[in-house]
Amino acid sequence: MLATSFHHIIRATVWPKAAEDIYIQALSYVELLNTDNALYLKIKALKEDSVWHSLDQDSRHAATMFIEEFEKSGTQLDIEKRKIFVENEQQNISSWKPFC
Question: What is the C-alpha to C-alpha distance for residues 42 and 93, in angstroms, rounded to an integer?
């Protein structure tokens, strides 16, 4: 969002490239988090824990959405398949040029 704002506000030559770099870095970081198996297992364990029923509806919904995002990012795959998935996603992210 920040990168998109920079792109629309300032059209100087340097800003689209900077916005693109920020955007790619943010996407890469999100993808890194989305494939963190330890984080995935902790959040998924919430559904099987007694604490799940003590969470409010919004928190349960957010946890469920996180689990779905993790699984879309291949977190439940074995280590080798997950590594291949992450490498492919990094290539996709770095080859996408939204601003320039």
Answer: 27
